[in-house]
Amino acid sequence: MKAIISLSGGLDSTTCLAWAVDRGYDCYCVSFDYGQRHIREMKSARAVARYYKTPLYEIKLNFPWLKKSSLVDKNKKIPNKKYEEILKGSIPSTYVPGRNLVFASILISYADAVKADAVILGPNAIDYSGYPDCRPSFYKALSKAVKYGTEKGDIKIITPIINMSKKEIIKLAVKLKAPLHLSWSCYFGGKKPCGKCDSCKLRAKGFEEAGVKDPIL
Amino acid sequence: MKAIISLSGGLDSTTCLAWAVDRGYDCYCVSFDYGQRHIREMKSARAVARYYKTPLYEIKLNFPWLKKSSLVDKNKKIPNKKYEEILKGSIPSTYVPGRNLVFASILISYADAVKADAVILGPNAIDYSGYPDCRPSFYKALSKAVKYGTEKGDIKIITPIINMSKKEIIKLAVKLKAPLHLSWSCYFGGKKPCGKCDSCKLRAKGFEEAGVKDPIL
Q: Do residues B75 and A83 touch, judged by C-beta distance below 8 A?
């Protein structure tokens, strides 16, 4: 079984790769440079891919309109919200328009070319920032589009952690011995995680609830 | 009303832009360099966009796996089939894996960023080469994915010519005074259309049936 996997270098995608390896998939990873300010995560993606000895394609996407997102435009402010507010479901300024659709489409193109059985992505709709392209309904509709719009047709869209809490994701990662020490989640691309952005807060809460120490802190 | 339009520089997308302008859409065009051997079509896209005074983004996509297609890999042979065989529905080697899904996703990302009302694409499922990503079922499924997976949600996916014959497309183009003299369809990027590839044959048959002389010949 062959799978194409989106590997950002974050905690979620690292866990997804660990999951796919554990399930016996022959894994091919893709990571994206879309101008994100935490381009530092690509270093993590490379390290994680090396850890699992999987090939990694790095794809550069240069879409000027992505500057709308505070995750791309450094002149915009990244929100610093309380943990409870993050989960309230409004879409924050860090949302990158259509990002997961574009990522998934590129993985599907790759899968259709090499006749892969699955495309694996790491969205999460529980402990997340309210991004619309992390919801199960989106991936369900996309699966139908793949069925009709590709040569292979039967390429599964698998989102292993979409309904897990951050705590559950971390517990799964630990069980699978995923190299979380190589992962990166902070929206700022500094040397150390800021501890203040949505991504850092969700990660910290997850480790706390899982009763595990975050190896990158 | 704002629309994002895929403009390849071919006959179909040129007609779609003419259609959108006629319908009163404020049009923003995107063309793609994905390593196609008929990169010459981008010159046509630029000329058509200039003709309509619409902005045009040129997006470069560098996906190594697209070399699977004879439309990208110059070492592969482009089929030279009879007109009747082209329509038989098997997928030819010129199929570019997931191309229209990737193109559409990028247009949707753009539309979501600028709050556009519609994304307009020019696939055709009548006089076509049997590409799966030209079928109405694919665009219907994609519309659902857009509804759930974007911030704006109500971005229409419009495919104005999907159920038209080439003859009908050309008649529509003539009626709308679309600049077909600037368009390009041949899969080979030469100075003159080859007259032998699927794309040339479908175009020639269309002009013949419409009783119109092809202005680029």
A: no
